[in-house]
Structure formats: C-alpha cells, structure tokens
Amino acid sequence: MIRAIALLAALLLHPGEAPAQRAACGQTPAAVARDLARQVNAQRAAQGLSAVAASPRLDAVAQAHACDMARRGRMGHDGSDGSNLGQRLARGGYRFGLVAENIAHGFDSVAAVTESWMQSPGHRANILRPAATDLGVGVAQPAGGRPYWVLLLAAPL
What we know:
Residues 1-20 form the signal peptide. Pfam families: CAP (PF00188). This is SCP domain-containing protein. By secondary structure, the chain is of the alpha+beta class. Helices cover 48% and strands 18% of the residues. The protein has helices at residues 2-13, 19-23, 30-46, 56-72, 85-91, 110-119, 121-127; strands at residues 53-54, 96-105, 134-140, 148-156. Strands 1-3-4-2 form a 4-stranded mixed β-sheet, sandwiched between helices.
C-alpha cells in the first residue's frame, strides 16, 4: 500500500517519466534531512529567528527536484519538464505565501553545503527569511556521481 502511494505521488509530481527512472532515485536519508534542518535552524537562531519545521510535502517536492537534477546531470531551478518552483509546489499540494529554493551540487556533507549557502548572499538570505515557517530537503546522488541538494524554505498561505 505504501509503495502504491509513493508511486502515485511520483506520477503526480513527474507524469511524463517512466517508473523505473523515478524508482532509481530513492529518498533523502532521514539523518541527512534532520542534520540539514538542525544546521538551518542553528543559523536562524544565531540571528534571533524562529525555527522552521520539516514539511512532508516540501520534502517530497525537494526530493523530486533533486532526483530530476541528478537524472539530468544538470543543476538548475527549472524542472526537466520546464516547470518552475511554483508549479512544482502546486503539483505537490503545497499552497505557499512565501517560498525560496537553494540548490547545490557536489558537496559531500551537510556541513559543507550549509557553509557554502551561508557564504553566498542570496542563499544566506533565503535561509534567514524571517517569515519562513517550513522547510523541505531533497538529496539525490547518481551512481558514481556527487550529490544534488535542494533546500526549500516556505510559509503556507
């Protein structure tokens, strides 16, 4: 039953892809997602901002985009179907009032990708958006390749 629900969710997020392509990607390890959330919240706390909470819907959208980038071997904010972040969130059932997306490729640890984002003014600003309440994490590593990372920070409508 859970496998059928996961397949249905994948079909809704990426209707034009073959099931074998989707199944090959997997999920972000829970420990990695928790560690990234902890690091993001530590950066927010250091600036006097409230913590963001994990959102299963945002996690699913982030993971789908990380998998899409890994399959294409290309990092970008656009999906392989031409979708933008707002369209991907709508397909994932997350109605947002605020959303920001950080992506990265090639970092082998949560600490390294977080440090890189905090060194970049635009990525840092996304992490430190005061109105953000939710976060989603996606990480996909192609066979023999380096990881693709997606961090979503958002607030629902």
